[in-house]
Amino acid sequence: MLGDISKAEKIYIACGHTDIRKSIDGLAAIVQRNFQLNPFQNSLFLFCGRRRDRIKALYWEGDGFVLLYKRLENGSFQWPMNAEAVRSISYQEFRWLLEGLSIDQPKAVRKIKIDICI
């Protein structure tokens, strides 16, 4: 199905700004060269422009890339501008981002990973 990003196993966000004029090939090159990740893996890659009112999402569907584009009419995305080049985020953080919230919610209850050795 065209643009069914719910099947993505991981979501990666490119921190800072990206030249949003880039096409599929340009964004795939950023994923490979700058982040050393495979753009053909089952992952969603998110990019944001300088004004933070537009994002692009790149997703490989198995037979071709899907490029999604969202422009806010009012407001801006709370995009992380720290020094990290790429960051993996959860579906919850992705929803927060699209709702105009920061992905670093200070009061959010985080899941704990427990390793049990028997």
Walk me through what this model shows.
- The chain is α+β, with helices and mostly antiparallel strands.
- It has one domain.
- The protein is 15% helix and 25% strand.
- The protein has helices spanning 24-33, 91-98, and strands at residues 10-14, 43-48, 54-60, 65-71, 86-89.
- It has a five-stranded mixed sheet with strand order 4-3-2-1-5.
- Helix 1 links the parallel strand 1 and strand 2.
- The chain is globular.
- 19% of the residues are buried.
- The mean pLDDT is 87.
Name a few traits of the molecule.
2 helices, IS66 Orf2 like protein, Transposase_IS66_Orf2, alpha+beta, 5-stranded mixed β-sheet, 118 residues
In short:
The protein starts with 9 loop residues before the first strand and ends in a 20-residue tail after the last helix.
Total beta strand runs: 5
Main structural class:
alpha+beta
Largest sheet: 5 strands, mixed
What is the element string, with H for helices and E for strands?
Answer: EHEEEEH
Percentage of helical residues?
Answer: 10-25%
Categorize the overall geometry.
globular
Could you tell me the strand content as a percent range?
Answer: 15-25%
Number of helices: 2
Report mean pLDDT, rounded to a whole number.
87
Q: In order across it, which strands form the biggest sheet? A: 4-3-2-1-5
Say what oligomer this is. Answer: single chain
Distance between the termini: 43 Å
Number of domain modules: 1
Spans of at least 5 consecutive residues whose pLDDT stays below 50 are: none
